[in-house]
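[Meeting: bench + compute handoff]

Bench side (C.D.) handed over the final construct sequence. Compute side (W.E.) agreed to return the predicted structure before the next meeting so the bench team could plan truncations. Sequence as handed over:
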Amino acid sequence: MTKTYTAILHKEEDMYVAECPEVGTVSQGKTVDEAVANLKEATELYLEEFPAEEAEEKPIMTVFEVTQHAKTKKALRAGAY
């Protein structure tokens, strides 16, 4: 049986980190494709040991904006955080 899962990616230095929120698996790779392929493999291995529930709900994903104040920007550039 084939199921579709979500991959959320972000870049950390020279690597892409991929996470599957439905299962909780995480992996990484030098490219987006490599990170997703590694996440797929990690998720398949995880699901062999811990099968997924049948009535899984997909996560709700959205975006939001945050206003960054000048003082915060300055501190971030200076490495204060």
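W.E. noted at the follow-up: The two ends are 46 Å apart (CA to CA). C.D. will use this when planning the next construct.
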